[in-house]
Design brief:
The protein is 42% helix and 22% strand. It is of the alpha+beta class. It has a single domain (4-94), classed as GIY-YIG endonuclease. Strands 2-1-3 form a three-stranded antiparallel beta sheet, sandwiched between helices. Strand 1 and strand 2 (17-22) form a beta hairpin.
Length: 95
């Protein structure tokens, strides 16, 4: 059994959002920051981790990612602001 993470990145508060899933959040975040994870995040400079959830199974994380991608933008912003009202980069919480 592998854990999975669903995460939301942005380029600035209320800016471009990206929803992703991974089994290794630190590694994936690093890949986004050096521009090797996604052409979309590279193109728009989407590297700030503003939300994440850990799931006991990768399959559950994938289900959650699929659900979040269908959400309206306003709902995603509300989700972020419930736990991160200042849109701080949460990468320090992963150490």
């Amino acid at each position: 059994m592998r854990k999975g993470y669903v995460y939301i990145l942005c380029n600035k508060p209320y800016g471009t959002l990206y929803v992703g899933v991974t089994s290794n959040l630190n590694e994936r975040l690093h890949a986004h920051r050096i521009g090797t994870a996604s052409e979309f995040t590279k193109k728009y400079g989407v590297t700030r981790l503003v939300y994440y959830e850990m799931h006991e199974l990768v399959s559950k994380a994938i289900q959650r990612e699929t659900s979040l991608k269908r959400w309206k933008r306003d709902w995603k912003i509300e989700l972020i602001e419930k736990s991160n009202p200042d849109w701080k980069d949460l990468d320090y919480t992963l150490m």
